[in-house]
Amino acid sequence: MTTSWTNLQEKLANCLCPAGNGVFTVNTAKERKEQLHQALFGQSTDIDNIWKDSLKALPDASNAVILGIASDCGGGILRGANWGPLFVRSTLLEQYPELEAFDMGDVRVIPHLLHDKYLNEATLSNCRKALYKDENSPYAVSPLTITEDVLHDFYAEFPQKGVFGIGGDHSVSYPLTKAYLQAKKKRGIRAAIIHFDAHTDLLVERLGIDLCFGSWCTHILDDLHEKHHLIQVGIRSSGRPKSHWENTFGVRQHWAHEVKEFGVEKIIENILAQLQDENIDELYVSFDIDALDETVAAATGTPEPDGLFQNEAMDILRALAAKYPITGADMMEIAPFTDSTGLGKESRDKTLAAGAEISAFLIKEMCK
Asked: What span is annotated as the signal peptide, if there is one (predicted)?
């Protein structure tokens, strides 16, 4: 066992927790967590020790590694995406039992925190004491900071593995993609981000906060080899026209109405043409569930009409996967207890089924 792996294993055991436990609760959802633990570990007691022991298998496990980040502190409309990791995992286990991904667990989340840079020393000290029983602990305390710190070490130790992140609001994709892109760039790998969303997420800040669900894309552009290696699909809710975003930030966009007007095959052709001459080696797919039409995915904080249908999104993903290896991905903004339709469980289950199908496809591609 190498020193670096020993150190990473210790960091994982401190900064992460068993799958489903990223949402801090006392009694609420106890049964749901126990069901998930039963499915993952074959029992629902002594889970902390079983999970820590399971981390020893990571070096020889699948190339696809699941990480839950149960944080919605970076959201700003309707909250509830912190329950996404637990519900998406449970749906995947039920509907896609053949998946071979290794589940690394959840980031430990203090639900009031976003990033350590926003905290003063007194708050950092108090939170270190709460999380690690040591006010002088070297570990980060906020979910975005913990995620990025853990993944920098993860990619250094396991450069061939990829992380499938389950959020959480879309601010969580900031550390997921930043660590991924920096690791790839160090190895001379040219990676592009394919971002499915109803919104551009290209604000510079929102109400004075630079890292949030509406701005994360802006702050990973410099980690790409070229800014136009961020390709966005499904955009439709924006106060500015497509030309503003493309000309200001250098990204490429395919709005939802273009999919309807020109057909999904033409959009696929255009995306592949944009990638063709860029010497792209690998892809990361970030999928905000609100890229899908609100009739398909209503259990989210910002459901939007006139979006992509599930088959359209899957057609695009299949075409991309046929040409490029997908080595990182995430599923964001599924908020199981949020519903704009009034249909309750029916709406939630429909959203989860759509998110699980897309997630399962991406995970299978990452396993290759």
From this structure: none
HEC readout, 202-244: CCCCECCECCCCCCHHHHHHHHCCCHHHEEEEEECCCCCCHHH
Could you tell me where the DSSP H helices lie in the chain?
Answer: 3-15, 30-41, 47-54, 84-95, 121-132, 143-157, 173-186, 242-249, 256-262, 264-276, 310-323, 345-366
Token pair 């046929």 is found at: 322
CB atoms within 10 A of CB 1: 8
Asked whether the beta carbons of 227 and 221 are under 8 A apart, the reply is yes
How does residue 76 score in pLDDT terms, banded at 50, 70 and 90? confident
- CA-to-CA distance for 190 and 171, rounded, in angstroms? 23
- Residue 52 · residue 155 · CB < 8 Å: no
DSSP state of 292: B
**DSSP string for 38-79:** HHHHS-SSSHHHHHHHHGGGGGGS-SEEEEEE---TT--SS-
Look up the pTM and report it.
Answer: 0.96
101: containing domain:
3-366
Angle at 90 between CA 86 and CA 92, to 5 degrees: 120
Check the CA dihedral 98-103-109-114 and report its sign. Answer: negative
239-293 confidence digits (pLDDT tens)? 899 999 999 999 999 999 999 999 999 999 999 999 998 999 999 999 999 999 9
List, in sequence order, every residue forming a beta bridge with 287; answer none if it has no partner.
196, 331
Q: Using H for helix, E for strand and C for coil, what is the string for 305-327?
A: CCCECHHHHHHHHHHHHHHCCEE
Based on the structure, what is the number of domains in the chain?
1
Per-residue DSSP letter, 340: S
CATH assignment of the domain containing 218: 3.40.800.10
| CB atoms near residue 260 (< 10 Å) | 16
Taking a C-beta distance cutoff of 8 angstroms, is the pair 169, 333 a contact? Answer: yes
Residue 341, pLDDT > 60, answer: yes
Percent of the chain clearing pLDDT 90 (strictly above): 91
What is the rounded average pLDDT of the residues 90-101? 96
How much is the average pLDDT of 25-37?
84
Q: Are 94 and 353 in contact (CB under 8 A)?
A: no
Please name every residue paired with 67 in a beta bridge, in sequence order, or none if there are none: 105, 165
